[in-house]
Amino acid sequence: MAAPLLLSMVRIFIEREKRHVEEKFSGRISELLAKLHVNAETVVVVKNGEVVSEEERCGSDDELKLLNVISGG
Q1: What is the pTM assigned to this prediction?
Q2: CATH code of the domain covering residue 14
Q3: 2 within domain boundaries
Q4: How many Cα atoms sit within 13 Å of 56 on the Cβ side?
Q5: CA distance 50 to 64
């Protein structure tokens, strides 16, 4: 029998919306972005003070910042 999946609180700051949210989540950041309806190409993800890829795992009281990607020409 498989062990139950434990979901931890992840604290998230979404810069474009200027809001903080808490989600019960444990998994890849790409899955969390999809859950939040955030396009991974439009943000830089900072996990506990370090820039990480969306393939990084998060959970267990991590703190994420979803910062806007700004491009210009």
Answers
A1: 0.84
A2: 3.10.20.30
A3: no
A4: 16
A5: 9
